[in-house]
Amino acid sequence: MSWFTRKDKGIQTPTEAKREAPDGLWYQCPSCKKAIHTREHRVFAFTCSNCNYHEKIGSQEYFELLFDETKYTELDPMMGSGDPLEFTDTKKYVDRIKSTEYKTGLKDAVRTAVGNMNGLPLTISAMDFSFIGGSMGSVVGEKIARGIDYSLKHKQPFLMISRSGGARMMEAGFSLMQMAKTSAKLALLAEAGIPYISLLTDPTTGGVTASYAMLGDFNISEPGALIGFAGPRVIKETIGKDLPKGFQSAEFVLEHGFLDFIVDRKDLKDKLTSLLQMLQ
Ligand SMILES: [Zn+2]
What value does the mean pLDDT take over residues 242-257? Predict the structure, then answer.
């Protein structure tokens, strides 16, 4: 019965004979499973043309989406984390930073840039979830604070795009202090009468929700984004009650008065522009 058993292990097709689509040509929507050409996906601002699922994107994509002719200047691009607590978990914090920098090409979990959006000068701080879960440490707080300073100095609106798992545990108390620091800076912006719009994207949780993300003159969100402070399990254990279904979705949060509106990413630039024109 030797013809029933495979003599050689593994698939024997040589690489050059394999018929595969070139890498990165197709995108499969994780929600409805439809395959979409990556070029079409990009044209639709990385949303699904079939079910409108909003793919998670980073600071680079938001800057390209919002700034006119993708022209912008990044502020403090080289600012990187120290290791004030000499923290080690499964690996040393300094090593984790180094390997994440290498993997993502980013220096930390937020980038700030200035430029024009439909001709209006604007400062944008956008978070990158790929950098240690978009966690807020000293660099995130400082870069946002400096972005706000720039807006104050040049009297131009500030847009914060949050996507974060919360505070960065490797910097413990230093991370938590960023909540107070950014909140205080935003208070100065409010005092000067300069608009601050906060866009919450999937997911926005923890110390980020509890500070700058919810302090906008307008708090807006992308459809379907997860927005919350603690995870469902922790809340359930604390209050000892079952939680309503989907209670941390943008739609639920909007219905309960925590958001001003939900905006489709394809309309983001135009909606933000009209909003800022109204506020001027
Ligand atoms: Zn889809």
Answer: 93
**Cβ-contact 211, 178 below 8 angstroms:** yes
pTM score of the predicted model:
0.90
d(CA 223, CA 220): 10
Give the per-residue pLDDT at 133: 96
User: Per mean pLDDT, which range of 111-125, 176-190, 238-252, 259-273 is the poorest?
Assistant: 238-252
Q: Tell me how far the alpha carbon of residue 38 lies from the centroid of ligand 1, in angstroms.
A: 13
Classify domain 57-279 at the CATH superfamily level: 2-enoyl-CoA Hydratase; Chain A, domain 1 (3.90.226.10)
- Give the pLDDT confidence score for residue 13 in this predicted structure: 65
Q: How far is the CA of 43 from the centre of ligand 1 (A)?
A: 15
Q: Which residues are annotated as a binding site?
A: 29, 32, 48, 51
